[in-house]
Amino acid sequence: MTSPLSITSIPPEVLGEIFTHASLNDADAPITIGSVSRTFHRTVRTTPPAWTNLKLKMREPADDGRCIRKAELWFTMAGACLVDLSVQMEMENVMEVALSLHAIGTPSGSTSTAPVKENIPAGWLGSSIVVLPDVLHNYAQCIRAFSLHTTNIAEARVFLSAMYSTPLLQGSIPSYPLRELELRTSSDGTRSPMTPRTHGQAACVTLPRLTNLERLNLVNHPVPLMCLSNVDNVRNLRQLKVVCPLRFAPIPAD
To answer: Where is the F-box domain (predicted)?
Structure first.
């Protein structure tokens, strides 16, 4: 009688396929799988497709460093594979205080995204500085799909402008491989003091040059007509989905 096969006897290529499918259902599966055994750890670390689903959630400023380390690990392990990224911000008004060095200003010609104390006003030292979007800027060419959930539209605008900042050199505007973009806010911004108002409506986000964009989903976001009027941004657009609440005048109590 032959002895039953153990899971560790499965070829690494097959294990890699299993781990990849597991990561589609649970973005953190690579970490969980890698802690099971040395074989699993070695296999998942040498399977780039298993690291193509990245979810980051920030509830407080202290989560910034954790999210940065996680993002750097995922993009490193994914190698040449494009990553589907989801970022959920649940920190009220943190963006308004100090989102990143993008809002402060980086030294001329500098490509570093690490916080530099001399660039931060004295009154901001010790405050909450979120550097995550500046770090993600380094991996913008590795992102296939991006979902951003913020508290309001103003936060989304600052996050996107930092993550997809325009190069200083003219004529060097990059073309990103992003195919799917979802922007979602917890509020439509009608009551948010952070959101600029234009003719009674919240200002929309500014999209970068996305020549490969195929799907754009907006939840509680105005349609960025100025950005979509750019032929480069709509050349491959196949789906535009807009979800926003309908508002009516209050019904009199009497």
So the answer is: 4-54
